[in-house]
């Protein structure tokens, strides 16, 4: 029987995109359940940015999501169910995201969705609420924390605003020599602008001076004019809300201009993909860390290593955004495990709301969801680039 069961699992993996569920972590409320009698399939939709403006970080993130679902399926299913992940590249375009959402809902009849960007996630949230489909985006917009307006959106990491608040708190507590002066650098998108007003409000509250704001396009290859304008205000620190590409441009141009401001980036600036394109200009850069680096020795890496070994790959072949996608899919699966009816969006939401201090093996801060709060955590770490590698120098903290 064991041989037949193993053969069946192998055939299922080879024949389709079906992926299933391992034991994983346990919640503080109920133990995670494994295997079980074969029940059928749970369909999950996914919006990937592979070719769009944020494809630099979107590609490894999507790979991580797909990898975790595949890993999970190889372990026998979620309480007897297999997971089918139906994902497509929407190239960071809102109309394409809306079209795919309608397809996933009407044709594919998915029970939950793994989303991506801020603008499309916010554009879809009313439809998501009406259709009662749990939606895990890679956007950590503060707006998605509003449970009345976004009852089916879940944040699996600290919101951009909470990240900015925590950075400002760290600046306030560690700065010497008077009132710290801070500049804000961001792109003119919903993603870029998401934390800006909250950052300004919190800075005023704690006694940090915001002295300048500069807009740099996500695909910018030159930021000289913006940085020259910023230099006139002589900020001690500059907080960056970008992805790897624009961040590298900012750091390289700042080095050319001899700017000695301490640059600190929110989570999508951080990761190994920044280092080869920024070169030595990345030295000293500080980044917000919401998810672990593959080279960290953490309990949660065991599953990742196990999966990669089946593909002939190693942890060093992957980067932090792969881990971020892996963890996001893992949290959704943990909610499915707890659901009384995992085939419906309402059932999965109720399962997710049972998760309390979900231990992710150090890959991310523990998350808790309740009926009144879908913001899983407000905790971050900080890492500094030293000798060409991000080195974490804080424990998890909030503001």
Please identify, by name, the CATH architecture of the largest domain.
3-Layer(aba) Sandwich
Q: What would you give as the CATH superfamily of the largest domain?
A: Response regulator
Using the coordinates shown, work out and report the CATH topology of the largest domain. Rossmann fold
Low-pLDDT runs of 5+ residues are 1-36
Tell me the series of helices and strands, N- to C-terminal: HEEHEHEHEEHEHHEHEHEHEHHHEE
Structural class: alpha/beta
Strand content: 15-25%
Total number of domains = 2
**Rg, please?**
21 Å
Number of strands: 13
Strand order of the largest sheet: 8-7-9-10-11-12-13
If helices are DSSP runs of H or I spanning 4 or more residues, what is the number of helices? 13
The CATH class label of the largest domain is Alpha Beta
